[in-house]
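haha ok so turns out i had the wrong file open the whole time. this is the CORRECT one, sorry everyone. sequence first:
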Amino acid sequence: MRNARLIQDFRDTNYRPTRRTIADGLARLEQELGAKLDIGRCHLHVPHQPSGTALFATLWYRSYAGDDIIIAYPFSKACRARTTSGARVNLSLDQLDGALIDEDANVLLADGRSVHALEFDVLPHPKDFTDLEHAIVFLTVRFLEAEDIGFRYMPEPGLRGIDYSRMSELSVSNVKALARYIAAHIGKLPRGDEEPPLGPVSLNKIQNTLAMAGVRKVRGRKPTKAA
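then structure:
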């Protein structure tokens, strides 16, 4: 029976991702772990429930004589790659499940398409955000009335933090209305001793923060003209 070695060090001591691409994972396998890519088999495994959103992928190397090695990637909202013709393509993580990888980092998807230069769109770590950006995300969750999704409760009674791993489940259809809500509430958020209130916040800053956090912006339908 095979044993699997799981490699999870996908962030360094400064919380920066240590790998973003398939090539990064293959280099770790070959250069540091001694895997022989030309005599083994590599595929992608994406754990997820049929009704849920996939949040991360693993590169699975299976040797023909020895134990398996599993390289974990950081939490991601999607990935991007190039087709054989050089066109850019965006892929959801679940589309990667079962994809085969060769030693040149080419990826054969389960639907028969072949892509290369695959890079994960890594979700930010909470430490990547400034106090202002944390506040924007916090108020966005409040604005959407999505506390059950966007907040996780901490061990201390009454203390809760932002669950950044679930931000991709949220969507904002009216960013201007969100901006008005943030403007009305951000100055009232509690701050540390001698720290000034937060705000004001530009619309561009809100949009950039939503994109960094993985919150989707959904455009509403344009009103139809009366006949």
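The chain has two domains: 4-122, 126-217.
again sry for the mixup
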